[in-house]
Amino acid sequence: MDFEYEANRIVITEGNQEIGEITWAIKDGIMTINHTGVDANHQGKGLAAQLVDRAVELARKEKLMIDPLCPYVKAKFEKDNQYADVWKR
């Protein structure tokens, strides 16, 4: 599995197939994460959490705050204080 960074998303690929992604838009220093998804055959392996962590790592590097519009990301932020420094509440 590989993680590929694109302009507004991170994609997980296996071979030549996309099996997961997290997408966002950036405006005025805020990364609005609007979607996280993993192929049904690969769910339950922690891939969505890895996508969130990589997006958060990118936001920290770029000094961005995150607006977790995606329900999965919002739930992770609500559960775990490790994201408090980037969460735009």
Automatic annotation (TrEMBL):
Coiled coil: none annotated. One of its GO terms (molecular function) is acyltransferase activity, transferring groups other than amino-acyl groups. Residues 1-89, 2-88 form the N-acetyltransferase domain. It holds the Pfam family Acetyltransf_CG. It comes from the Bacteria. It comes from Enterococcus sulfureus ATCC 49903. This is Uncharacterized protein.
